[in-house]
User: Fold this.
Amino acid sequence: IAALLARLYGPLTALSNVRVDVMTALVSFERVFEVLDLQPMVTSPKNPKPFPSKMELHFAGVDFSYPKGADVSLASLEVVAKPDQGANEQILTGIEFSAAEGEMIALVGPSGAGKTTIISLIPRLYDVTSGAITLGDVDIRSLDLNELRQTIGVVTQDAHLFHDTIEG
Assistant:
């Protein structure tokens, strides 16, 4: 009988914890849906300009700082989150360069210099704080966001390794 009781104890304990597991899952789902319901910070304009035929990229006096925590926070986290104490630090200041169609450009610098941030601004993962990024003679903020992102290809520096061979 002692052996039977020992075998029943595990499933009974697990059954008694089901309500806790379900409630935890519901809170997690609420958080996920809260994130999914956030309005994107970068959107297409109501009347986008036609995509330019000239594909020269130009950064003109581009400044950028990442959004503050208050701009991107979730209401459910505001009670437990620490207030954003840091200054809205300028990441890029006065960036000026051009890249002609077919030209290869290398962004070189130490870690934290802003290379990835510059690349993230081109497909409008973020918008510039001031200045402009133009494609041809058109500010990329006035282009259709989907068309812009379909036109731009980015090769990141992240290396993804698989634990397998390429042999089929």
Summary: The first strand starts at residue 57 and ends at 64.
